[in-house]
Design goal:
The complex is a heterodimer of chains A (347) and B (296). Chain A is mainly alpha-helical and 347 residues long. Helices cover 61% and strands 11% of the residues of chain A. Chain A has 12 helices and 5 strands. Chain B is an alpha/beta fold. Chain B has a 6-stranded mixed sheet with strand order 5-6-7-3-8-9, with helices on both faces. In chain B, strands 11-12-10-13 form a 4-stranded antiparallel sheet. Chain B has a 3-stranded antiparallel sheet with strand order 2-1-4, with helices on one face. The chains are: A mainly alpha (347), B alpha/beta (296). At the A-B interface, helix 1 and helix 5 of A face strand 5 and helix 3 of B.
Chain lengths: 347, 296
C-alpha cells in the first residue's frame, strides 16, 4: 500500500515539497544578511530593512507563501484523494484488493499528513529568518510595514511558528473530507479553497483573542505615554471632536487588543469632554506643548484613566501551542469523520 | 454442493428506491455462473454487495462462509473485476501489476507477467493508452493473479466489441481451467453466458427466476407446438414457463424431468436465449420489462 501511495502521490508531493525546500534554502542563505543589516543599523534597522527591496520583498513573499500553502495542500493533495478515485471508478479496483478501505485511507492520510506537516515547517523557517526583525520590534524600534508589527499581531502570527503546520494538516483533512462528501474532484477542490480560507480568516479575527487570558494595565494619560490622538473636524479652526486616545504601555512586543479611556466612575468612555480638544497638538494656536500637557494632566486629575488589554510578547509560544492544538484537534475530528464515512457505501 | 455465495432476503436501498429487494440466492462452488437479467434487475448491486463495496440495507449475504465486509484475510479470497474494468490511466501496466503484488498476499507474479506477455502488451505502456479490450484484459489479469477462490465479474465485457469480448471470455475460461476458482459473471447478454458459463442464474426484479446447470436446463426445457389447448390439460409434471396461442395453435415452453409422450405435440429443443427470454417474460407471455438484449 505504501508503494501505491507513493506512486500516486510522488509527482505532486515532489513539486510542493521541492518548492518549499528551495524556499527554506533561500531563507537559510540570506539570514546572515538580515543579521548583518540589524547589527549595522541599530535603531534604524527596520527602516533600512523596509528600504532594502530584495529583503523586504523576500519577507512579504514568504509570508504570503505561508498563508497560501494550506489551501494548496488541501486543494491538490486533500480534495482529490478519494474523489478522484470515485470519479474515475478506480475505487472499484483498489478497494476490492485484499486490504480494507480503512487501511487504504490510513496509509494515504498518514503519508500526505506527514508531507503536509513538512510543508508547514516553512513557517518555522520564516520565524527563524525574522529573528533579528522581531528582536528589533521588541526593543521598540518602529517602522511602517507588516514587519514593524509584533509577531503576536494576528497578521504575522498565522505565518509564524508552528501554526502553519497545524493549518496545512487541517487543510489536507478538510480536502479529504470534502472529497468524501462531494465525491467529485473539481467541486471538492473549490469547496476546499473556500473552507480553508474561511478558517484562516476566522481564526485570527474571531478566535485568537479569546484563547489566553489577556493582561490588563491601567495608567494615567501623560504627554509621554500617549501615542495616538484621533479626532474629527478641522484642527486649524479649533473645531475638533476627539474620538480616541491611545497610550503605550512600554511593551512593544505585546499584542494590544483594547486601548480605551475610562471615565472617573471606571466605565468605558462614550465621549471625551469638550476641553479635551486642547490636547490635540495641532498646527493651530491651541496646540502648544504646555496646553497639551495641561490637558492630559486635567484628564488625570479628574480621574480619567487609560485601560489597556494586551498579550505580552512572552506568550508567543504558548499561544502558538494552543492555537496549533486547536487546529490539530479539528483535523483529528475530521479524520474521524473520514474513517467513518469511507466505511459506508461510496459509489 | 457447498455455496460460495449465499444471500437470504438481501436488499439494498438507495434513498427511497430499492435497487435490490428480498433476494435469496445460492451459488454453488466450482462453477462458472452466469448471472443474467435485464438492466436494473439488481445484478450489479448484488455483486457489489458480494464484494463488500456496498453494505446491505436488509437481509444477509455470505461469501465463502463469511460477511464480505470483513477482514483482509477474507478479502484476499475474493477477486473482483468491476464494471467498465477500471484502471489508473496514469499508471503503466507494470505499475498495475506492482499494485496487485503490494495489495494482495497470494499474488502470483509469474502468472500476471506471463498473461501480459501472452497478450503481447508492453508493460511500460500506460493504462490510459490501452484499448477497451486491453484494459479489460488488464483488469482480468489483476483479478486472476490475486489467486482468489471466487472471482466476481460485473459486466466485464459490456463495452467491448465482439472480437475483444470473445477473447476476454476465452482467457477467462482458460484461467478457470488452470486454477481452482469459482466464477460469477454478470451480463445482460445471453451469448456471453452461453460461451463462458456452465451454470445459469436468471435474475429479474431482484428475484431468481431460474437457477441451474445449463446443460440440465436445456435438457429439461422443451417447446411444444400443437393444436390449441388449455394449459390445465397438460400433465402435472410439465411446468409452463410461457405460452402463446393463435386461433388454432398453442405453443408452450415447459420444464419437465420426464419424457414428453403426447404424440399431438411437436417437441423441439430450446436455445439458451429462448430459455432466458421465456423466464424473463413469465407465464403470461407478455413482457412488462425491458427485454434482454440479444447479441447477433
Amino acid at each position: 500500500m505504501i508503494w501505491l501511495t507513493w506512486r500516486q502521490f510522488r509527482a505532486s508531493a515532489l513539486v510542493l515539497l521541492g518548492t518549499t525546500t528551495a524556499a527554506i534554502v533561500v531563507l537559510a542563505l540570506t539570514r546572515h544578511q538580515v543579521v548583518a543589516l540589524s547589527r549595522a543599523n541599530g535603531q534604524s534597522f527596520l527602516d533600512v530593512f523596509g528600504n532594502d527591496r530584495a529583503k523586504s520583498t523576500l519577507f512579504y513573499a514568504s509570508t504570503a507563501v505561508v498563508y497560501m500553502l494550506p489551501a494548496v495542500v488541501g486543494i491538490f493533495w486533500g480534495a482529490p484523494m478519494v474523489s478522484r478515485e470515485l470519479e474515475a471508478g478506480t475505487s472499484r479496483l483498489v478497494w476490492t484488493q485484499s486490504i480494507t478501505r480503512t487501511r487504504w485511507l490510513a496509509t494515504k492520510l498518514g503519508t500526505a499528513g506527514a508531507a503536509a506537516a513538512a510543508v508547514g515547517l516553512f513557517g518555522l523557517a520564516l520565524t527563524w529568518w525574522c529573528g533579528p526583525i522581531d528582536d528589533a520590534v521588541a526593543k521598540g524600534y518602529r517602522s511602517t510595514g507588516l514587519f514593524g508589527q509584533p509577531r503576536l499581531w494576528p497578521a504575522q502570527f498565522g505565518a509564524r511558528g508552528i501554526m502553519p503546520i497545524g493549518m496545512t494538516v487541517l487543510a489536507l483533512v478538510i480536502g479529504v473530507a470534502l472529497g468524501l462528501v462531494i465525491r467529485r474532484a473539481l467541486p471538492a477542490m473549490a469547496a476546499t479553497l473556500v473552507l480553508v480560507v474561511a478558517v484562516q480568516v476566522v481564526m485570527p479575527m474571531a478566535v485568537q483573542a479569546h484563547l489566553l487570558p489577556m493582561k490588563e494595565a491601567t495608567a494615567r494619560l501623560t504627554h509621554d505615554n500617549v501615542t495616538e490622538v484621533r479626532g474629527t473636524g478641522a484642527p486649524d479652526q479649533g473645531l475638533v471632536v476627539i474620538d480616541k486616545i491611545e497610550i503605550s504601555i512600554g511593551r512593544p512586543d505585546a499584542w494590544v487588543t483594547s486601548n480605551v479611556t475610562l471615565d472617573p466612575s471606571g466605565r468605558v468612555l462614550d465621549s471625551y469632554p469638550d476641553w479635551v480638544s486642547d490636547c490635540v497638538p495641532g498646527p493651530g494656536a491651541t496646540g502648544s506643548e504646555e496646553t497639551v500637557q495641561a490637558c492630559f494632566q486635567r484628564l488625570a486629575d479628574e480621574g480619567y484613566r487609560q485601560r489597556v488589554r494586551y498579550l505580552p510578547g512572552s506568550s508567543f509560544w504558548t499561544l502558538q501551542l494552543v492555537e496549533t492544538g486547536i487546529l490539530l484537534a479539528l483535523a483529528g475530528l475530521l479524520t474521524g469523520f473520514c474513517f467513518w464515512r469511507i466505511r459506508r457505501d461510496l459509489t | 454442493m457447498t455455496a460460495v455465495l449465499a444471500a437470504t432476503g438481501l436488499g439494498k436501498k438507495y434513498g427511497r428506491t430499492w435497487a435490490l429487494s428480498d433476494c435469496s440466492l445460492e451459488v454453488p462452488a466450482g462453477r462458472v455462473v452466469g448471472l443474467v437479467g435485464p438492466n436494473g434487475a439488481g445484478k450489479s448491486t448484488f455483486l457489489n454487495l458480494a464484494v463488500g463495496m456496498l453494505t446491505p440495507s436488509a437481509g444477509d449475504i455470505e461469501v465463502l462462509g463469511a460477511r464480505p465486509t470483513g477482514r483482509d484475510a477474507q478479502r484476499s479470497k475474493v477477486g473482483f473485476v468491476g464494471q467498465d474494468t477500471p484502471s489508473y490511466a496514469g499508471l503503466s501496466i507494470a505499475d498495475h501489476l506492482r499494485l496487485g503484488a503490494s495489495l494482495n498476499p497470494h499474488w502470483d507474479a509469474a502468472l500476471a507477467k506471463g498473461r501480459i506477455a501472452g497478450l503481447g502488451l508492453d508493460p511500460g505502456q500506460r493504462a490510459g493508452r490501452l484499448s477497451g479490450g486491453q484494459r479489460a484484459q488488464l483488469a482480468l489479469t489483476l483479478g486472476i493473479a490475486k489467486r482468489p477462490e471466487l472471482l466476481l465479474l460485473d459486466e466485464p465485457v459490456a463495452s467491448l466489441d465482439p472480437l475483444a469480448r470473445r477473447e476476454f471470455l476465452q482467457d477467462l475460461m482458460e484461467a478457470v481451467a488452470e486454477q481452482e476458482m469459482s466464477v460469477v459473471l454478470s451480463s445482460h447478454l445471453v451469448s456471453d453466458v452461453e460461451r463462458a458459463c456452465d451454470y445459469l442464474v436468471v435474475l429479474v426484479d431482484s428475484r431468481v427466476q431460474v437457477a441451474g446447470d445449463i446443460d440440465h436446463l436445456l435438457a429439461t426445457h422443451h417447446r411444444l407446438t400443437g393444436p390449441r389447448r388449455d394449459p390445465e390439460t397438460l400433465p402435472g409434471d410439465q411446468h409452463v414457463i410461457s405460452a402463446s396461442h393463435t386461433d388454432r395453435q398453442s405453443t408452450y415452453l415447459v420444464r419437465t424431468e420426464q419424457r414428453i409422450l403426447d404424440p399431438s405435440w411437436e417437441v423441439s429443443s430450446l436455445t439458451l436465449e429462448d430459455l432466458v427470454l421465456a423466464y424473463m417474460r413469465g407465464p403470461t407471455g407478455v413482457s412488462e420489462r425491458p427485454v434482454l438484449e440479444a447479441l447477433r
